[in-house]
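Example 342, ligand S-adenosylmethionine.
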Amino acid sequence: MTVAGGVRGLDNGGVVVQAVALTIAAMSAAVRARGRRTGRNGESNRNGAAGMSRGEPLPAVERALYVVATPIGNLRDITLRALDVLRQVDVIAAEDTRVTAVLLAQHGIRARLLSVNAHNERRRADEIVALLERGSRVALVSDAGTPGVSDPGALLVRAVAAAGHAVIPVPGPSAAIAAISAAGLSAKHWLFYGFLPTTATARRTALDELARLPFALVFYEAPHRVREAVLAMADQLGDAREVVIARELTKRFETIHRTRLGETIAWIDADRDRERGEFVLVVEAPPSPDKPAVDDSHDATLALLMEELPLTRAVRLAAALTGAPRKRLYERALALKSKKDA
Ligand code: SAM
């Protein structure tokens, strides 16, 4: 499956929007009439039967650190609540103030910006705790997506919580969740790994540990490393394992493509543009042990190759010929050998 296209059309049609707005207004009035308690985040009742928010603007932004998710490409992917918070806080702590300034300008928001990045997060954490102590309201944003997800933020959040101040998430876009939502995963469970180590040895060790887990795996990768990353994945996780390449999500050249790890390089090489942009790689879970990846049909190929070649070379050739994971073929080869030797 490959999806490539322009920026999504977001025109909902005035009539429909008006009808929905009226319905929401009527629902809100009904909820108010029932006299439900309004919670901190504008929700009707956090523990109420429905547990639903009224979706109204915040009554007031209180003294707290708001962790606000921002778009991962399409600037319209920002929630109404995120805009409420960014409009009202006293300070916005941003990974790169220039990037955030563009987003704020798009929505006509003026704010005091403070840079918080991997290099100054510890020092800034003290300054932000001091701001909260003086009664300020602070928002934290990263360049794209959700702060703290492969982005700075965790250290600041811990410092603020340890100082006894509220930390309030304002959820929204994240590349990992967007990729998973469009990947059509077969696996029930997935593990978010983020970026693999950049050195070959450390990457191999990390992948070796992951290979044993019965989960789908979600990786972030930079364009200049995507080639070596998928080669290492094919090697350690098996050529036959399926992967969904989610590239440039929510942007003009958004691409979502399902293939096998062993076929990824050929797919990239077919169009050099496929190596550009931002990537999420979602690798399907390995087959469950009761569903072996290598059926007996590969035994004939293996047996033939093992007549002529040493075991490891026979396995390597069989993997290239069949696309089956090398590890599994190796296990079958050992089984065939011990049967023969018996
Ligand atoms: N905090 C962000 C989030 O919640 O997704 C992630 C920040 S991390 C520094 C940046 C990485 O996220 C990129 O290298 C890429 O792997 C992934 N990413 C971010 N935006 C993306 C997009 N539009 N399409 C695909 N991957 C994206």
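Summary: The chain is about 40% helix and 15% strand.
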